[in-house]
């Protein structure tokens, strides 16, 4: 299945436990990203570490406890702090300012809420390098004065996809663009969302020019009393813009939807028209079919949607495109569904067309 760590205490203690108990997964991430940075950007690991350092000042001002947690991971895993910082800035190093060609990427995120559904549910397929299945960790994080968090991440990375005890959850889609800043790496923005007690607090952590690179944050919040909402914000170094519909459903893939964001950034996903856009259209079609036939929009339907193989290999359930160079061959690494109304998570490690979802208690 997936290695699960229960992390408690102050930030450095949480990090130390992550690094020591998840050492194998941390080293898997280091190996993957050393190869990936060379493949995407033509840089060495030493150069990748140097590219991460300019973010340090902004992170210290944003949340010093994130620095302490990354320091703890480095101590626990027996590596340098700069190695862990580079992992947490991996999107800024690999994807922002991208100048390559024929880039292929894929993640499909879906959210439903009233009036389309009776509950607030978000979910996605996380599509990336297949070898990163070996780096996955399921973290249960318990910090003082913060909600407890259930999060699926890569070893060494302190923010990713999950939800918390306050009913706030987040899904994530990478956006490949031509610009970045030295502000907060987007994976740390994901952690800030999961540290939040409410939707307004979560938005306050990513709005404006706080994020160093572009990404889609699909954020859901439910108070457990029948009141829930899902919003989709595209963040960027130039500000955040909502790309949210009012019909109770949301879908996002891997291209920029906001005209505001596109005023400042160039979308560098060269397969956006025959991959990302088609996945978005397909997910929207599946939702429309379900609503037209009066099906209940619930976790079971999410499982079906996320296992969809239409337009394989570039389907919602993503398969490697063997026509692309090896370092650009992406596939579904895990699939996750979060019912925020019921505070439930369902996880499938690997492709949902080939594996089963399990409820995470």
From TrEMBL:
It comes from the Bacteria. It holds the Pfam family AAT. InterPro entries: C45_proenzyme-like (IPR047794), Peptidase_C45 (IPR047801), Peptidase_C45_hydrolase (IPR005079). Residues 119-353 form the Peptidase C45 hydrolase domain. PANTHER family: BETA-ALANYL-DOPAMINE_CARCININE HYDROLASE, PEPTIDASE C45. This is Peptidase C45 hydrolase domain-containing protein. It comes from Oceanobacillus caeni.
């Amino acid at each position: 299945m997936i290695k699960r760590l229960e992390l408690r205490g102050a930030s450095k203690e949480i990090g130390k436990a992550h690094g020591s108990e998840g050492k194998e997964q941390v080293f898997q991430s280091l190996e993957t990203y050393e190869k990936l940075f060379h493949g995407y950007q033509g840089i060495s690991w030493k150069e990748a570490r140097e590219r991460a350092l300019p973010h340090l000042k902004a992170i210290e001002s944003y949340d010093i406890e994130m620095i302490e947690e990354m320091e703890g991971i480095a101590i626990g895993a027996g590596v340098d702090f700069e190695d862990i910082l580079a992992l947490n800035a991996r999107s800024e190093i690999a994807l922002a300012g991208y100048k390559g060609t024929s880039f292929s990427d894929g993640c499909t995120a879906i959210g439903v809420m009233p009036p389309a559904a009776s509950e607030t549910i978000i979910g996605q397929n996380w599509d990336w390098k297949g070898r990163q299945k070996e780096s996955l960790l399921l973290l249960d994080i318990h910090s003082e004065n913060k909600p407890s968090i259930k999060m699926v991440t890569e070893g060494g990375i302190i923010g990713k996809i999950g939800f918390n005890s306050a009913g706030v959850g987040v899904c994530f889609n990478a956006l490949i663009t031509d610009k970045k800043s030295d502000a907060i790496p987007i994976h740390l923005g994901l952690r800030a969302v999961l540290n939040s007690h409410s939707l307004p607090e979560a938005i306050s952590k990513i709005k404006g020019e706080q994020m160093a690179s572009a990404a889609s944050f699909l954020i859901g919040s439910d108070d457990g009393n029948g009141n829930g909402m899902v919003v989709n914000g595209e963040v960027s170094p130039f500000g955040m813009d909502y790309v949210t519909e009012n019909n109770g459903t949301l879908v996002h893939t891997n291209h920029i939807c906001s005209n505001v964001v596109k005023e400042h950034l160039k979308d560098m996903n060269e397969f956006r028209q025959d991959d990302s856009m088609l996945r978005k259209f397909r997910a929207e079609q599946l939702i429309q079919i379900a609503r037209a036939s009066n099906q209940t929009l619930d976790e079971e339907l999410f499982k079906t949607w996320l296992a969809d193989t239409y337009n394989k290999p570039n389907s919602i359930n993503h398969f490697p495109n063997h026509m692309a160079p090896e370092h650009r061959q992406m596939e579904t690494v895990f699939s996750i569904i979060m019912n925020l109304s019921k505070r439930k998570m369902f996880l499938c490690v690997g492709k949902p067309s080939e594996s089963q979802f399990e409820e995470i208690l």
